From TrEMBL:
<keyword id="KW-0804">Transcription</keyword>
<dbReference type="InterPro" id="IPR020449">
    <property type="entry name" value="Tscrpt_reg_AraC-type_HTH"/>
</dbReference>
<keyword id="KW-0805">Transcription regulation</keyword>
<dbReference type="GO" id="GO:0003700">
    <property type="term" value="F:DNA-binding transcription factor activity"/>
</dbReference>
<dbReference type="Pfam" id="PF12833">
    <property type="entry name" value="HTH_18"/>
</dbReference>
<keyword id="KW-0238">DNA-binding</keyword>
<feature type="domain" description="HTH araC/xylS-type">
    <location>
        <begin position="166"/>
        <end position="262"/>
    </location>
</feature>
<dbReference type="InterPro" id="IPR018062">
    <property type="entry name" value="HTH_AraC-typ_CS"/>
</dbReference>
<dbReference type="InterPro" id="IPR009057">
    <property type="entry name" value="Homeodomain-like_sf"/>
</dbReference>
<dbReference type="GO" id="GO:0043565">
    <property type="term" value="F:sequence-specific DNA binding"/>
</dbReference>
<protein>
    <submittedName>
        <fullName>AraC family transcriptional regulator</fullName>
    </submittedName>
</protein>
<dbReference type="InterPro" id="IPR018060">
    <property type="entry name" value="HTH_AraC"/>
</dbReference>
Length: 267
């Protein structure tokens, strides 16, 4: 793991191992840094990896496939699979190292997976002092059962309504720059625009337009330290850099350029 940004950026890294050396063991590592966190894996790795963040978007790459991992998801990579994962500034990233493939992910080499609320809670529990090994290994089994490789599993894990908004959210999270309107989504799902908009309000407490704006800006924050503003604007779906700058400034109170080169106490 390497940390991008000035060498003075503080990095917090805590490791918690349970049953290490056994097939059912687990190592949980919690990272947090002032700069961008970047994880790059080589093919000689012998442990499966699961990355999850409770407070931000992850940018991931596997082969030629680059996608973002959004709310309620993690990124999975089997051993010996080359991949990259990037988290934003002051974003907590949890990394689980396993010797066994979770049954729900059997056959998946690498990619975004859903994670239910209880599994997410237990990951944070394991990354704290004082968790006894028997309890930790029981929690490990529950975490693995709370993963899912399909959109259906994602909807089942998170939807409180019929699941239309959650299905859209998972697809959009992987590609925030996709120019798909609410009307187009409604047509794809064979429902009315009003029904879909109502479901977004039920699931997220906001409209589709507002939810998409927040998704795009959160994805942009992961990229700004390492990409020019114009490229970031294009990748997250803005028609022009000026439109992106205006939206970013309205949300965060500073320009994207200042955000990408700020001292620790600004923006």
């Amino acid at each position: 793991m390497s940390l991008a940004g000035p060498p003075a950026d503080p990095l917090s890294c805590e490791e918690y191992g349970y049953g290490l050396g056994r097939p059912d063991g687990i190592l949980v590592i919690r990272y947090r840094a002032a700069g961008v966190l970047e994880f790059g894996q080589r093919r000689q790795d012998f442990l499966h990896q699961l990355y999850w963040s409770p407070d931000g978007v992850l940018s991931t790459r596997y082969g030629t496939d680059t996608q973002f991992v959004g709310q309620g998801e993690a990124f999975w990579a089997q051993r010996a699979i080359s991949h990259e994962v990037r988290g934003g500034d002051w974003q907590s990233v949890y990394r689980l190292c396993l010797r066994e493939v979770p049954p729900p992910l059997d056959g998946l080499r690498a990619g975004a997976v859903s994670i239910d609320a209880e599994a997410a809670r237990l990951i944070q529990t394991l990354a704290r002092p004082g968790c006894a090994e028997p309890e930790a290994l029981t929690a490990r089994a529950r975490i693995l059962s709370g993963l899912g490789a399909t959109t259906r599993a994602y909807v089942g894990h998170h939807a409180i309504g019929p699941g239309f908004a959650m299905e859209v959210a998972r697809t959009m999270s992987h590609d925030p720059g996709a120019a798909i309107t609410l009307e187009e989504w409604a047509a794809r799902l064979h429902i009315s625009v009003k029904t879909l908009q109502r479901d977004f309000t039920r699931e997220f407490g906001m409209s589709y337009s507002r939810w998409r704006t927040l998704l795009r800006l959160r994805a942009a924050r992961v990229l700004l330290d390492t990409h020019p503003v114009g490229e970031v604007a294009r990748r997250v779906g803005y028609a022009s850099p000026s439109a992106f700058v205006a939206a970013f400034g309205k949300e965060y109170g500073c320009t994207p350029g200042r955000y990408g080169h700020r001292p620790d106490d600004t923006c």
